[in-house]
Amino acid sequence: MLSQTIAVTAVNLRSIRARMGSSSVAVIGIAGVVLVFVAVLSIAEGVNATMKASGDPSVVLVLRAGSDTEMTSGLGGDQARIIQDAPGIARDSSGAPLTSPELFVVVDHPLKRSGSPANVPLRGVTPEAFKVHSHMKIVEGRNLEFGKNEIIAGRAAARQFVDLSVGRVLKWGESTWTLVGIFDDGGSVAESELWCDVKVLQPAYRRGNSYQSVYARLADSSSFQQLKDALTSNPQLTVTAMRAPDYYGSQTETLQNIIRTIGGIIAILMGVGAVFGAVITMYTAVASRTREIATLRALGFGSIPVVISVLVEASLLAIVGGLVGGAIAWLAFNGYETATMNFQSFSQIAFKFAVTAKLLLTALFYALVMGILGGMLPAIRAARLPVVTALREL
Amino acid sequence: MRFLPIVWRNLLRRKFRTFFTIGAIFFAFMLYGVLMAIRSAFAMGVDMAGQSRLMMIDKVSIINPLPASYEAQIRLVPGVTDTTHANWFGGYYQDVRNQFPTFAVEPESWLRIYSKEFEVPEDQKKAFFADRTGAVVGVDTAKKYGWKIGQKVPIQGTIYRRPDGGPWEFTIDGIYDSKIKGADRTNFIFNYLYLRETIPERSGFRDRFNWYVFTISDPDRATEIAAKIDGMFANSPNETKTNTEKAFVADWAKQVGDIGKIMMWIVAMAMFTILLVSGNTMAQAIRERTNELAVLKTLGFGEGRILSMVLVESAIIAFVGGGLGLALSYVLITAGGDPTHGLLPAFYFPTSAVLTGVVLVAALGLASGFLPAWQASRLRIVDALRRN
């Protein structure tokens, strides 16, 4: 039976070339589905990767209790000072705590892709910020000088918004800024932002001496609880503390929710539709060979080898389709950078589509399942057709 | 029509294939419905936004509120018929995850300007106007949390804080609905005066509004009036940006960016792949019968009659599959509404898109039947009979 199976399968596979038309339709069908599957999920993967890059587990973020995002938080200067002196925070060689009180606002600035205005996050920081956000480095121009109206822009922001290049003078409202540098932060959310001196930003946005968040580097990773307890039990403060990975994870919850919900609906409908498509193409492929298959069976080939041969053909076409679709998805989408709105803070966040190996393998697996499901019914049908009737078929 | 039985027999002769072809087309048009709903969802309701309504925000950023004194100045501008204002409150119920769009507004002018978007029964309106701590909530949000008229609900704010840190307590005075398809029925509006009393005067944020909305008598003068108003506040500490509500919504949608567009392309591709596959199968089913068509011709059937029989056959497949797909997706999307529960309120299947869908179904039926029938008709009977 094994030799029979191999023989029939070989005949099938060799004759694919003669049936180029219907075979390529099957391949295109599966390729399309895989492409769609990979493309949708690479958006979610990309957003995820950006969030992961942002979440340094040894960094803690302190916000006013009840705020879910920096944008809506608010901390007075005196509160910020109390937070900075809390236990559990790492200190530099001079004994100063590694903390950064920051102000987070958005400004209206045009996007490159549409020319229409969007919200760019503008973050006011202190000199200590560069010790807390330790992955940050200037890749073009220089760092900002504190006390001056100078701005540095994240790489992604510079790519997404117009006029964000070194040397540009930007005017928002009554304040004028000079962009002096571009920075890299390992692909994090900060790369979608502009940074400036918080002491210059406070009066420009009429914020007095207030901040929105305090970033702190932990003395060691086990000191989070100590810091959190100290902050929440202090009657002078009403704040929440969370680790950076948790915060950034929550920041894209809405966005991820949208992508996953819509992506799920699309994937289910498309998957079932594709199985139907695979069934009819394999059916056509088998139907056009009804006489051939009947001849084989008249010659003494069993029905199981026939079933297997059809299934092998279907899986092979599915894998080819899967590879083609995956390759196109990878070429077209991997690393494609775009920005969207972070629904939590209503500001722009840039990310790159990430077509990962895991994603491609999953897609290939689905392609195979679709191929086998699609081949199953026609295969059984081919094997069960009475030989005499089948021989008479045109 | 005498030959319908022949068409019917042809359809049934390979029941299995006919069934799966119809199934594939059915799913393709289900996808079409989702595609159209995604399109309107990511347009964020731009079709519903008013052309004759202008919005005004701070030029630097919507987060900088504008002084209350601007309202009186705008009212004096010729062409402006009515004004209202709003503050983004960022409210949530019990858990910070339970957020919905919450605005502090001037109740009477807001419900006057948005009478179609916020349809509130007269008695509820009256109660709302008389109750400083009252609120009007969209039917979707009310349903989600099981709120009834007269119920007291505690709402916590993410931006504003009460001095005691506790939530604001509101009485649900009204529940609004809207006849507009895809309208946002999740909003929660309440009286600005209730919010105002919790804003300390020295904060500098009292009597300042995130945005103004005003109606104008002539939509064609929108650009001119907007420029005039922005000119009035130029070189002040709060310069303004005025535009039609439609333009604001369009910019807002653009901020979400190409994600929506990419998803649409993807779904469109999936749909057309499935259509290609099923169209090909339908064509194949007819191509297989070329010599039968030749027999019919030999029997004296005219070209036109054969063509129409073939077309009727493929049209039946297309319309059964596509029609069911369109109908079911329309019903499901209309009944199910926003699948993300409040994030994409404009997720709906527009009626105009249903018509386009019907045209697509017809095109599919025509194209997949016409090509093979036309090819068959070009063959000489003798050659066609000899084929296979």
Q: Which secondary structure elements does this structure contain, and how are they paired or packed?
A:
The complex is a heterodimer of chains A (394) and B (388).
Chain A: H1 2-15, H2 20-54, E1 59-64, H3 77-84, E2 99-110, E3 117-125, H4 129-132, E4 137-141, E5 150-154, H5 155-160, E6 169-172, E7 175-184, E8 194-197, H6 198-204, E9 213-217, H7 224-233, E10 239-243, H8 244-251, H9 253-287, H10 290-298, H11 303-333, E11 337-342, E12 347-352, H12 357-384, H13 387-392
Parallel strand pairs in A: 3-8, 5-7
Antiparallel strand pairs in A: 1-9, 1-10, 2-3, 2-9, 4-7, 5-8, 6-7, 11-12
Helix pairs in contact in A: 1-11, 2-8, 2-9, 2-11, 2-12, 9-12, 11-12
Chain B: H1 4-12, H2 15-42, E1 53-58, E2 66-67, H3 70-75, E3 80-88, E4 91-92, E5 102-105, H4 107-113, H5 122-130, E6 134-138, H6 139-145, E7 152-157, E8 168-176, E9 188-191, H7 192-196, E10 208-209, E11 211-216, H8 222-232, E12 240-244, H9 245-256, H10 258-287, H11 290-298, H12 303-336, H13 351-378, H14 381-386
Parallel strand pairs in B: 5-9, 6-8
Antiparallel strand pairs in B: 1-11, 1-12, 2-10, 3-5, 3-11, 4-7, 6-9, 7-8
Helix pairs in contact in B: 1-12, 2-10, 2-12, 2-13, 10-13, 11-13, 12-13
Concise account of the structure shown:
The complex is a heterodimer of chains A (394) and B (388). Chain A has 394 residues and is α+β, with helices and mostly antiparallel strands.
Identify the notable features of this structure and list them briefly:
heterodimer; A: 394 residues; alpha+beta; 2 domains; ten-stranded mixed sheet; two-stranded antiparallel sheet; B: 388 residues; 14 helices
For the record, the count of structural domains of chain A works out to 2
Broad structural category of chain A = alpha+beta
Strand order of the largest sheet of chain B: 4-7-8-6-9-5-3-11-1-12
Radius of gyration of chain B: 29 Å
Beta-strand residue percentage of chain A: 15-25%
- Proportion of residues in β-strands of chain B: 15-25%
Helix content of chain B: 40-55%
Gap from first CA to last CA of chain B: 30 Å
Q: What is the typical, i.e. mean, pLDDT of chain A?
A: 86
Taken together, the total number of domains of chain B comes to 2
Number of helices of chain A: 13
In which range does the helix fraction of chain A lie?
40-55%
Please trace the helix and strand order of chain A, writing H or E for each element.
Answer: HHEHEEHEEHEEEHEHEHHHHEEHH
The helix/strand series of chain B, from N terminus to C terminus, equals: HHEEHEEEHHEHEEEHEEHEHHHHHH
Largest sheet of chain B: 10 strands, mixed
Mean pLDDT metric of chain B: 87
